[in-house]
Amino acid sequence: MLNPWLALEAGADAAERAGQVRRAHEEFVTGGGIGALVRGVVAESWQRCAGASVEPESVAGIDLADGELEAYRAAHPLARVMPLFRELLGTVADDGAHLLSVCDENGRMLWVEGHAQVRRHAERMNFVPGARWSERYVGTNAPGTALAVDHAVQIFASEHYCRPVQAWTCAAAPVHDPRTHRLVGAVDITGGDHLASPQSLALVQATARAAEAVLGELGGGPGASAPAGPVLNVLGCDEALFDAGAGRSGSSDRAGGTAGTGAPLRLGRRHSEIMMLLAAHPEGLTGERLALELYGERDVNPVTLRAELSRLRGLLGPLLDSRPYRLRRRPHTDYDAVGDALSAGDPRAALAAYRGPLLPLSEAPGVVRLRRLLEDRLRRALLRRPDAVLLEEWVRTPWGEDDLEAWEALLTCRGAGETRRLALASRVRELRLSYGLEESAGGGGDRPGRYAAGREAHATYPQRSRP
């Protein structure tokens, strides 16, 4: 197949392919083998689902409902482009055979629209506003997989990992914030096998690009997702993305033509560390202090740091000042977004903004300190008033999957069925054994140190930022 994101090649028999994929799915969930007829993007998704212990009979859980749902989606950036989605995809959603859906960056459904009879049919699998449709919760599906791989994709019939969804075919495309280039959600059309066509994939891709263009034109105001000044993205990626934003002056094209065009710069690892440290110290740092933050007590020739700063100035122009080293316009960072939400007492917003540890592979002492400070603040907020939805989201991330305290807190939350409680208890016991703790309720005095060791061991994970 020329396009790996399409479910069927031209002229393929949909019924025959559905049977082939159904048999391949059964083989995978029973024995772990993946047949050659399974598309690569689907095979990789199935493997992620199995690794996340998604049950093939799972249905989506409900995260938000009623007033809480209304308030959340009214404040979401994609609320501003819902009129556009309805204009471009409304006829598809009203034809009695399809649904239009829009989810946030975590796979939480915000809108599901279409003919009432089709919506009632979809409700059987909890394809409803407020339900969580990320891969980690409900397996391979177009919006969830589009978010996981950051690309438009079709998912056809038995390519869905969970059996309750296999009667449907869907096509979805991710939508990005035009300033920060972070995912803000996905737009999807869901229906029958006839959606496995190049036209449906092209339609959702074009709709997503149109939405990004409109978000860029709307700029600030209610529901806007990014500030007007410089933006630095440093969470969940080893190389920061920097966008100088409005008011850029003096930048040149010495970075391969990107610095003067308004496109974001992908910084190297050392430059990423320097930018984050300067953003965290708007008052500026002396060369000696900056070297200590970057290299610690290692004996490093001062010329090395000056050379790095000279190369960085070549990318940034006069934005980088010296004596002391500082940024003339402090960028807003995604690190700030998490911290601001925590300061406002909103752990849900903080968790949504947290894309992963700060520059996770960095060993610069100053960066490591900032990384641990933010993660510890977020963890304390989640543990202070345990919320099953937020804790579940945390422990299903690579950086939270070995957090014993979070698993224990989740076990104490009300509402879980007996099967789920047994699974949680098993995971808690597994972690306690791996950390060498007593199996009794007590004996956890050294837990923070144990968790820190586990956290450092799981600092590497897939990047989600878009170049």
TrEMBL record:
<dbReference type="Pfam" id="PF01590">
    <property type="entry name" value="GAF"/>
</dbReference>
<protein>
    <submittedName>
        <fullName>Transcriptional regulator</fullName>
    </submittedName>
</protein>
<feature type="region of interest" description="Disordered">
    <location>
        <begin position="439"/>
        <end position="467"/>
    </location>
</feature>
<feature type="compositionally biased region" description="Basic and acidic residues">
    <location>
        <begin position="447"/>
        <end position="458"/>
    </location>
</feature>
<dbReference type="InterPro" id="IPR003018">
    <property type="entry name" value="GAF"/>
</dbReference>
<dbReference type="InterPro" id="IPR029016">
    <property type="entry name" value="GAF-like_dom_sf"/>
</dbReference>
<dbReference type="InterPro" id="IPR001867">
    <property type="entry name" value="OmpR/PhoB-type_DNA-bd"/>
</dbReference>
<feature type="domain" description="OmpR/PhoB-type">
    <location>
        <begin position="262"/>
        <end position="327"/>
    </location>
</feature>
<keyword id="KW-0238">DNA-binding</keyword>
